[in-house]
């Protein structure tokens, strides 16, 4: 099976393991669509003293607190869905005292919430069972940017890697990672899906579905491969998230400005209509609402590329765009590498071509309002896989995907009963080396893994460069190498996220390559003897078990 097919299989397995998380494209375009009302409901709004009450004229009536801006009620077909643990649905962890207003313009009702410099908006459209939302964050007065919809327990199935039962399961890490009696692990972190791979997340009973349809994430942070909280369920209730900035395995600074719309949508049990997805959504109706920071279609531009030269057919390629104010991405067509990214805010961006999740080309590109920036074929020149090697362990793709336990680690804890032993000495040339080598290494768990290999007389007579690629690190864990009796210097720690990562479903940090210049004197001169490469994790910090210094591997090779 080709590497590309392996990666496709891996993504399908992860999607199958994550209940209610759906991918992009044609697979989800056949959803059941928006619900039509069979009732005589009247579109409009009223006031119950504490809340603005909005009737969508379909099957949904929702309430917004006049004092806090919390979403305090979601009644669908006469049934209340909102609230758990004494809390309601809200921005961040709740704004507190806020100024809340409401207005109706034709077929749209808009609720505006002001708290300090932050603005949040809810909108209803006549005849639709959707709550449209926007959040405009101007500064760091809040440390995260998220919306959490809190849903009552017992309505939707409590199943999946992001579900647990507090009465029966045991906390094993930081209050948010749980182990079931059968040894499997669960956490709100274990939705296991990259931002670019889903349009919506939610739950269904088969007859009713409740979904969070994500925005385009232009004001979010972390890039197309970022993983964060999407949903969770336990015996206390259900959470659905739109995470725009969250300080968990975060690689970028917070972006500011208006983000949205994202949509809380009810269906008759199927997936949301593809017309709600950010890439398809008609937002012309938003233009006249007066939402602070809103930029309509006419104020945006587009980048189109003819293609990419130098692609490896075994890999998927993504073209990303980022500056301090916005981020976007587009999938490159297989074969040609052609790409198109519409709906971009004007500005100058760094364009990055990713092979898998590894940056292999960068350049600047300028976007103008109402214009299309056309690019000729881009030539990829930064792929480390093109170098000639004596041996290579894994693939240069910015992920640990070929290594042992990598597939499981985006939706389970390393201590999970389903994980293979984290040991993994390998012999180059025996076959299946990558699958036997651990995706992660920790100082307190599996330090000192060995790689055995032989060299010809000519190879042993020369110095060689050893490359070790990593994708992230926990508390500055990094590899120091020993080749036979030769010991490398202590490598400097690259910039990496400062939070947990390897235990919370993410290998995504800053890809980095450590380079070691191994002298000829280090090798075994007898061609019949194995050379032994030993890997040790070093760090100035300490920890225990799976919270000791550690790193995630991308690839390792010895250059010819």
Topology overview:
Blueprint: H1 3-17, E1 21-22, H2 26-29, E2 44-47, E3 51-55, E4 60-65, E5 71-76, E6 79-80, E7 90-91, E8 99-105, E9 108-115, E10 118-125, E11 130-137, E12 145-151, E13 170-173, E14 177-179, E15 185-187, E16 200-204, E17 209-213, E18 231-234, E19 237-245, E20 257-267, E21 301-305, E22 308-309, E23 317-322, E24 327-331, E25 339-344, E26 347-355, E27 358-367, E28 372-375, E29 378-379, E30 389-394, E31 426-427, H3 433-436, E32 440-442, E33 449-453, H4 457-460, E34 464-474, E35 478-483, E36 486-487, E37 512-518, E38 531-538, E39 550-559
Parallel strand pairs: 21-28, 22-29, 31-33
Antiparallel strand pairs: 1-16, 2-3, 3-4, 4-5, 5-6, 7-12, 8-9, 9-10, 10-11, 11-20, 12-19, 13-14, 14-15, 16-17, 17-20, 18-19, 21-25, 23-24, 23-26, 26-27, 30-39, 32-39, 33-38, 34-37, 34-39, 35-36, 35-38
